[in-house]
Amino acid sequence: MTPLVSRMTPAEIEKIFRDEAGRALATLIRLVGDFDLAEDALQDAFAIALERWPTACPPSNPRAWLVNVGRNKAIDRVRRLVAFRGKQQEISHQLLLNAAAPEEAGDALAVDDDMLRLIFICCHPAFAAEVQVALTLRTVCGLTTAQVARAFLAGEDAMAQRLVRAKQKIRLAGIPYEVPGRDALEPRLRRVLAVIYLVFTEGYAATSGEDLMRPSLAREAIRLGRLLDVLMPQRGEIKGLLALMLLHDARRSARETAGGDIVLLEEQDRALWDTAQIAEGLRLVEDALRLPGRPQAYAVQGAIAALHARAPNYRDTDWPQIAGLYEVLLRISPSPVVELNHAAAVSMVDGPARALDLVDALQARGGLDGYALMPAVRADLLHRLGRTDAAREAYLAATAATQLQPLRRLYARRLSELSAISDLKN
Question: What is the pTM of this model?
């Protein structure tokens, strides 16, 4: 990592913390063997960084610094607890061993593997699927409990209790902090891939906040995908997911303005797309589709992303083939979100009226109640059909459904455009 400047603002320190917190926390959980203790220790380290870094030369490896300071703070917490209780034997033997461990800066491989270990803990079969996702959002993606609760349309207190119970189960059941052996890895692979894609999605389009993207999370998900591809080669679902992430991430530089506003796919400068990353993604898609057996869902999604990547512009995209691939995906892995994406592709082939029929039918079934992008898709289709009043209502619903500020600004611009159209009509 390039050495940092000698003085840093609190905002710069907070950005480093957002970028490094996930992997630092993963390492601390391995070192101290407890989620809550690791989270508290990392917060202690961050508080010290806010105090020291603005006035002193900050470390060249911030993550290693956070891990080492956090580890020491965790040891202090345990020692205080032991002294208070008067039970020296309660100090974990493993924690004492880790206290004498070498500095993390020289242990890059261990740090690199810790995030994958953490994801395998989150995906342990002892947890229901929604708990696996909630744990990942909280620990790996760094979302607050309130943000996780909003993602599940649940109350914050209820979500906090759900997370507490999950962490207690990890501790009491002695769930090992490790990548399991091949026999145990196979049953968890589907959930692990889903969680890695969830990490990528949070990096590609954040759940809430001021920033559209969190590139460090997207890069981390891609790194984990590469690692899994090495651990389990010749797996179509792994290659497909890695291709999908690479092809989406290749557009990163073109997806927002200098001021942080969203640039939609149809408006992006494709000269800014990462051609080397696209080439790698295209090769992986071909590899995934050539492997024997039934096409995997991630490979089909990667093939859709590949068609976007190959298109010289938005208008000349092969929309009929994209719509056809979504139909294949619906047979392989049906879901309301895939149906919504299929409808968006149909709008480019058969027009917005046909797509709106599909979206309204999906909405009537209640398949995507609470899904933030549903009203946005309806609003776009209504706008294209010239149904100004209905489009305005849909954009207002889309605005209320999202906590991501760049999206709210996009919808505000669309509402302004609709108001201008109404003024012209009057």
Answer: 0.82
